[in-house]
Amino acid sequence: MISKYLAPLDEVDRARDDHLAFLGGLEERGLLVSAGRQDPAVGGVVLLGVDTEGEARELMAQDPYLLRGLAEYTAIGWTPARGVLAGWEPA
């Protein structure tokens, strides 16, 4: 999932702790592969270990950024073929 911020960065940052806690919950459930903010900070990237776009959208629907209208997400499917994530399987 690739996010695009819809609000000024200072407003997004006020919700960042809640967003990171949300991502931490996904990580605890074994659903988060990796996540981070884009540089420059216009949004972020969240790699989820799920099978379908529908599952990804359902999970991200609970993100505080989305719930507060601070960001929107675009789903992009991806299968890593090279590098450290090649052959990655969910835990």
User: What is the CATH top level name?
Assistant: Alpha Beta
Number of domains: 1
Total strands: 4
- CATH superfamily, called what? Dimeric alpha+beta barrel
**Main sheet characteristics:** 2 strands, antiparallel
The helix tally amounts to: 4
Topology as a string of helices (H) and strands (E): EHHEEHHE
- Oligomeric status: single chain
Distance between the termini: 20 Å
Portion of residues in beta strands equals 15-25%
Side by side, the strands of the main sheet go 1-4
CATH architectural designation: 2-Layer Sandwich
What radius of gyration results from the CA coordinates? 13 Å
Percentage of residues in helical conformation: 25-40%
Which structural class best describes the helix and strand composition? alpha+beta
Report low-confidence residues grouped into runs of 5 or more.
none
What is the name of the CATH topology? Alpha-Beta Plaits
Tell me the overall shape: globular
| Average pLDDT score | 95
Fold and architecture overview:
The protein has 91 residues and is of the alpha+beta class. It has one domain (2-74): Dimeric alpha+beta barrel (Alpha-Beta Plaits), CATH 3.30.70.1060. The chain has 4 helices and 4 strands. A two-stranded antiparallel sheet has the order 1-4. A two-stranded antiparallel ribbon has the order 2-3. The chain is globular. The mean pLDDT is 95.
Short précis:
With 91 residues, this protein is of the alpha+beta class. The protein is built from 4 helices and 4 strands. The two termini are 20 Å apart.
